[in-house]
Amino acid sequence: MTIVPIDGKVVLEAVRTAVDRYGATRDELIPILNDVNREIGYLPGEALDEISRLLRVPKSHLFSVASFYRMLSTKPRGKHVIQFCESAPCHVAGGREVWMAVKEALKIDEDETTPDGNWTLVTTSCLGVCGVGPVMMIDDDIFGNVDAKQVQSILARYH
Ligand code: FES
User: Fold this and answer.
1) Which of 7, 50, 98, 143 sits most deeply, having the most CB atoms within 10 A of its CB?
2) Cα four-point dihedral sign 58, 61, 67, 69
3) How far is the CA of 37 from the centre of ligand 1 (A)?
4) How close is the Cα of 132 to the center of ligand 1, in Å?
5) Which of 123, 127, 145 is the pocket-test mutation for ligand 1 (most atoms within 8 Å of CB)?
6) From the CB of 78, is ligand 1 less than 6 Å away?
7) Are 42 and 4 contacting, i.e. CB atoms less than 8 angstroms apart?
8) Which of 135, 136, 137 has most ligand 1 atoms within 8 Å of its beta carbon, as the pocket-test mutant?
9) CATH domain 80-155 topology
10) Domain boundaries along the sequence of the chain
11) pLDDT tens for residues 41-90?
């Protein structure tokens, strides 16, 4: 995968925009991290340094928050991120078959990114829409009642 170097100015601007939006307070840490992650695609070290400085939060704490929330990442991710629900209700509704179909379609495993940098595949716990399992989320879009046979056509919607 080609990793495009991130411009430090862009990173600092993303952090400052998020901090201006929510306020320089620990209480808003998650929305700030989320906005920066969305803007840059992940949380580079420079972003964590700046957030740590502005919010007076130790960087070690930022790392533990980033590793707890699956939507956050301290490593570069693909252009599109698939979060696949691995909780029990989705699993019993046929999630395993769909999971295998997604892995087969992308030829990657959990926590991997396709060589072209288009896709990153991660698992997540319940996305809160268990009634329509199996469920997966691609970027901000939620797909419910997913059937293994639909996987290719769902992926084809993203370029
Ligand atoms: S168990 Fe999958 S969305 Fe709740």
Assistant:
1) 98
2) negative
3) 23
4) 8
5) 127
6) no
7) no
8) 135
9) Glutaredoxin (3.40.30)
10) 8-68, 80-155
11) 899 999 999 999 999 999 999 999 998 887 899 988 999 999 999 999 99
